[in-house]
């Protein structure tokens, strides 16, 4: 579909429904951020009712932007959109190997990004089903992931990096890593104080795109690094823990 045609359809959709892009200024912003395939993917998610509106940006990173969206139940959603222009994605192949067992690794960065989003969605679902507290995954399409919003929009919840932490947070983290390993058979592989929310007395593990199966050849190495990161963080905050190697044994059993 041509860009102007898509724009027209989005505008029509906006008039006919409660799509929250209100004026042409917002539309301009949208055009700056989204390329045609992204607009189309977004349009499809709107059409099927996965979201009914999109508010402002929550966090604009180098490779992904997170938006405050609205679900059909009127409850906030986090809409994570990976930027196709980001060329840094090649280094992520290491975390996709083994996941895409029957297909080949896509050669285009767009293909790689879409596969990443699919993997992130599935990882969230596996973790959620195993009883690990993560943002509940709702839907995905191409480079767009829709999940439960953690925080009080427009503000995202603070992460461990921005919050007061105590010994209970350390215990929760090790238990989450253990459950993830034993029940979901996953290793987060990008675990740090920046990827755990602390919100209204609850902790929420997130950013699961890099998580790999425990059968991944580098799973143990990733797990060791995850534990090391957390031990290091808590130590900096004056909270001692067992050595990473001891924790590794506890997690893997
Ligand atoms: N489910 C969510 N609810 C609310 N805010 C979220 C959610 N997911 C992500 N965010 C916000 O977006 C930020 C980045 O998200 P995330 O860590 O998943 O992406 P990332 O790929 O690591 O991006 P970056 O490298 O830019 O941090 C988070 O720190 C948080 O502020
Ligand atoms: Mg992150």
Structural key phrases:
253 residues, alpha+beta, Phosphorylase Kinase, domain 1, Transferase(Phosphotransferase), domain 1, five-stranded antiparallel β-sheet, two-stranded antiparallel ribbon, 7 helices, 11 strands, 40% helix, 19% strand, globular, binds adenosine-5'-triphosphate, binds magnesium ion
Brief description of this entry?
The protein has 253 residues and is of the alpha+beta class. Helix content is 40%, strand content 19%.
Spatial gap, N to C terminus? 53 Å
| Mean pLDDT level | 89
**Using DSSP, what is the number of strands?**
11
Major sheet strand order = 1-2-3-5-4
What are the secondary-structure elements, in order, as H or E?
HHHEEEHEEEEHEEEEHH
Shape: globular
CATH class of the largest domain: Alpha Beta
What is the number of helical segments per DSSP (H or I, 4+ residues)? Answer: 7
| Structural class designation | alpha+beta
Bound molecules: adenosine-5'-triphosphate, magnesium ion
**Rounded Rg:** 19 Å
Number of domains: 2
Low-confidence stretches: none
Q: For the record, what is the CATH homologous superfamily label of the largest domain?
A: Phosphorylase Kinase, domain 1
Furnish the topology, listing elements before pairings:
Layout: H1 3-16, H2 24-33, H3 36-47, E1 53-60, E2 64-70, E3 76-82, H4 109-129, E4 137-141, E5 144-148, E6 151-152, E7 155-156, H5 167-182, E8 186-187, E9 196-199, E10 202-205, E11 212-213, H6 219-236, H7 244-252
Antiparallel strand pairs: 1-2, 2-3, 3-5, 4-5, 6-7, 8-11, 9-10
Helix pairs in contact: 1-3, 5-6, 5-7, 6-7
Adenosine-5'-triphosphate binds at residues 58-59, 61-64, 66, 78, 135, 147-151, 156, 159, 195, 206-207.
């Amino acid at each position: 579909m041509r860009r102007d045609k898509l724009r027209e359809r989005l505008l029509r959709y906006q008039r006919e429904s409660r799509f929250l892009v209100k004026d042409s200024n917002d539309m301009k912003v949208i055009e700056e951020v989204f390329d045609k395939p992204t607009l189309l993917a977004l349009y499809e998610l709107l059409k099927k009712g996965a979201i009914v509106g999109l508010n402002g940006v929550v966090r604009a990173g180098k490779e992904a932007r997170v938006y405050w969206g609205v679900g059909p139940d009127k409850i906030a959603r986090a809409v994570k959109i990976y930027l196709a222009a980001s060329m840094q994605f090649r280094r992520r192949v290491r975390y996709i190997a083994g996941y895409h067992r029957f297909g080949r690794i896509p050669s285009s960065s767009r293909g790689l990004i879409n596969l990443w989003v699919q993997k992130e969605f599935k990882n969230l679902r596996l973790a959620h089903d195993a009883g690990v507290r993560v943002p509940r995954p709702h839907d995905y399409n191409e480079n767009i992931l829709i999940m439960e919003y953690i925080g009080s929009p427009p503000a995202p919840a603070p992460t461990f990096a921005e919050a007061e932490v105590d010994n209970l947070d350390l215990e929760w983290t090790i238990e989450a890593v253990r459950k993830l390993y034993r029940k979901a058979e996953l290793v987060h592989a990008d675990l740090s104080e920046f990827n755990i929310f602390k919100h209204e007395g609850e902790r929420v593990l997130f950013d699961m795109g890099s998580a790999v199966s425990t059968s991944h050849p580098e799973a143990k190495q990733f797990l060791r690094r995850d534990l090391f990161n957390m031990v290091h963080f808590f130590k900096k905050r004056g909270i001692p823990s067992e050595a990473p190697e001891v924790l590794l044994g506890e997690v893997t059993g």
